[in-house]
Design goal:
44% helix, homodimer, Rossmann fold, DNA-binding transcription factor activity (chains A, B), alpha/beta, 16% strand, six-stranded mixed beta sheet, 354 residues, DNA-binding, 434 Repressor (Amino-terminal Domain)
Chain lengths: 354, 354
Amino acid sequence: MPRTKGSVTIEDVARLAGVAKGTVSRVLNNYGDTSAETRDRILQAVERLEYQPSAAARKLKRGRVDTLGIVLPAGQGEHADPFLSEFLDGIAQALDLSDRDLLVTTAHSDEHAVTVHDRLIRSRKVDGFIVTRTQGDDPRIGLLLQRGFPFVAHGRTKETDFAWYDVDNERAFLDAVRHVVALGHRRIGFLGGPVRMNFAIQRKAGYRRGLAEAGIAHDPALEIACELNEMSGAEAARTLVHLDEPPTALVCVTDTLAIGAIEALRALGLAIGRDVTVIGYDGLPVGAYIDPPLTTFSQSAHAAGARAAQMLIDVIEGVDPLERQELVRADLVKRASDGPPEKTPKELKESLAR
Amino acid sequence: MPRTKGSVTIEDVARLAGVAKGTVSRVLNNYGDTSAETRDRILQAVERLEYQPSAAARKLKRGRVDTLGIVLPAGQGEHADPFLSEFLDGIAQALDLSDRDLLVTTAHSDEHAVTVHDRLIRSRKVDGFIVTRTQGDDPRIGLLLQRGFPFVAHGRTKETDFAWYDVDNERAFLDAVRHVVALGHRRIGFLGGPVRMNFAIQRKAGYRRGLAEAGIAHDPALEIACELNEMSGAEAARTLVHLDEPPTALVCVTDTLAIGAIEALRALGLAIGRDVTVIGYDGLPVGAYIDPPLTTFSQSAHAAGARAAQMLIDVIEGVDPLERQELVRADLVKRASDGPPEKTPKELKESLAR
DNA sequence: TTGTAGGCGTTATCAC
DNA sequence: GTGATAACGCCTACAA
């Protein structure tokens, strides 16, 4: 039976240093009222025994565990979400600087996610949560607000009275449309996301604003709501390109959709960046390795994770959540999947007919 | 009604049920010596108050936290390792079934990794570790063995007296060489990994065995040790292809290297799968989206994570670690980056000279 | 400046 | 069967 081998307690340290455990505790927590001499003696004992306070005992007394929690969507069909990996890495990096750790759990549905958050709160395993992929009306956030439990959301929701870190989605898609319009496109398709996702709503708004700004009439046929996987993107691209007046540019709500679209269009013999322009969003590393390399908007998942973690730490330490709301811009990463339209929609249509 | 403040304790439940807290505890831990009547009354109170035991207090008494730990390499240069993401997802899935959680930390060097493991052990935040990317001589495993702390390694080391889950790396690379030999290749390059990594050593052994089996003389110039990123793979590919007698097939120790190699070779105007065959290893989803889709060996990182987690749980619960050692096979995932050589090495060389 | 003691929420060992 | 009560390891008033 593997058991925790004789872990050193504060008692051991006290004995070795010849003081009471209370004194050891005070030194370790920087009360500053201990004499330099005993202080040194205690620290030396700590060093020698390699003493570290038990997280559990400490928690019991102080009510903090120095652990942040995150509940991820369980991997759908073996494919881990690359955005989340980078986001996690960013969190871990920020935590490393603050001697805190990250508890990771997964959930396979919205209700399950709420259950898991609740369990973690009640078992007091974490001090706060980072919530990702927020929805317009998010039950997790509802729970957290109701419980008064610290958290930071990556992305806003309808209600916004809490701490969040978000990308200016609307602005990014406005910029995307401006970009393709500047290239000469007038017929611009939009591969959107599930309507319950808040970011999908915001990005669609940006797309429409871009059209309006350029004086292009909005055509509902050019907007498709997709699931967030390649297949869905491929399907949507095929649908759009077979319209009577197909778009010469596709603005996609995520890189994953864009990659699926590119796959499908190439299979139809179209030259990406010349026959059809495709623009993604996320700045995933994968994007650089597909053919042609994907032009996209990048929000640095890594930076987002790191910043969200730090914001959460602040909130846990008592900062007003409303003082921790940050909106950042996504930047265009110009690669090779965009370019001036070499065909009119009509010519595009004809080239497919052959 | 769940109150926002002051979490429910066992005391609250006891009071509501009109019993002593000891009794509540016994019911909750299935001692089975309680009368059916009080049992029901207690469970009802638990339900009503939505009581959940405090993990910290429980830990203090029982010495278990129901939390597994993993220390990941900190993301190098913004690129999260896709293998690890899937591995994590597998762990999470297994844990979901057992009401345990996963504590994730990162380390930016080998020594740091040891420090972090040590800190986690001493602060008793986890019951055991999953160790990934083992090295031939691994300091983390040294520490864990010395401390007598439960762990499972994904990959073996020199010493193998502990629980591990590993892929038969040698066999996979033997198979890889057999595969390209069967296609007609005789000049076969090897993009290896850092020599301290155990899997790199094993894969190289498989490669050499494959050559020997086919009666092909081993040429040291065809073997290159790379770092595990695209750039390194690209560089190695360029070096090999510019040899006097370049290889017509490249067997790569990871998909990441293979992807880098493909990038570089395509940039030189070579047709992958015809001029040069490239084979990877890992079965990363990305591989399916590059051009051409990467032929690779798949070990299902997801399955590995799930299995490793379950093995660790077994070990924590007292199973002899030596009874938890598993070797699995990696299977060839045939896509389109391999094929019969259309050029001899000499012709390949000439086509590059132009 | 330092020692003593009570309590955080559980579980386990006693009595009854 | 069930109720007290003593730990578990730490922090922190309070006393000395």
